[in-house]
Structure formats: C-alpha cells, structure tokens
Write a structure and sequence with these properties.
Helix content: 55-70%
Order of helices and strands: HHEHHEH
Distance between the termini: 52 Å
Strand order of the largest sheet: 1-2
Low-confidence stretches: none
Structural class: mainly alpha
Number of helices: 5
Number of strands: 2
Shape: elongated
Length: 99
C-alpha cells in the first residue's frame, strides 16, 4: 500500500525473530548474500557521537545485530569516521562565523 509506513526490513525482522526464539544476539542477524545491505551502516551512525576511539569490534558487533556480511561491515566502518569528518568540517566552518 503506497504511502503507508512499512515494517522492519527482512534482515531486521529475521534478527527480531531470532532473538525472540532465544537466539544469541551475535547470530541473530542475517548472513549470506542478502545481508550485504546498508542497515548495519545506518545502525552504527550514532557511534560517530561517542568519544573516540570507537573500536572496530564495537562497530562489527552493532552491524552484525542485523547484517552479518563483510560488505555490510565494510560500509559500516566508513560511516563513523565519515560522519566525524563532516562534523569537524561543520564545526570549523561555523566557528569562524562566531569569532
């Protein structure tokens, strides 16, 4: 139905079902070809606001909640420093305006 909000994506739904069945969180996410989506990258974005350094293992753990694929993890690894670099540029730009 167009215009209506959708439910959770397949990988998230699978993770929720796995957790509901008393599965271990690290194995709840989808693996294989269909786990190479961008959900892991979206999920790690808030880590850009955590005091550095954010360890790669934490990024991998957060990503693997729903996406256990190396390509999804690689995308997630790029998100945290990318957001931080953007924030630093914005802060530098606006700090000039405040002086």
């Amino acid at each position: 139905m167009a215009g209506l909000p959708g439910g959770p994506a397949d990988s998230s739904l699978q993770a929720l079902q796995g957790l509901a069945a008393s599965g271990h969180w690290s194995q709840a996410g989808r693996g294989g070809e269909y786990a190479a989506g961008n959900g892991g990258a979206m999920r790690v974005a808030p880590l850009a606001f955590v005091q550095p350094p954010v360890e790669r293992r934490l990024i991998e753990d957060v990503c693997s909640l729903t996406h256990r694929h190396p390509e999804s993890y690689a995308g997630a690894l790029a998100v945290v420093p990318g957001i931080r670099a953007w924030l630093q540029a914005v802060i530098a730009r606006f700090s000039q305006c405040w002086q």
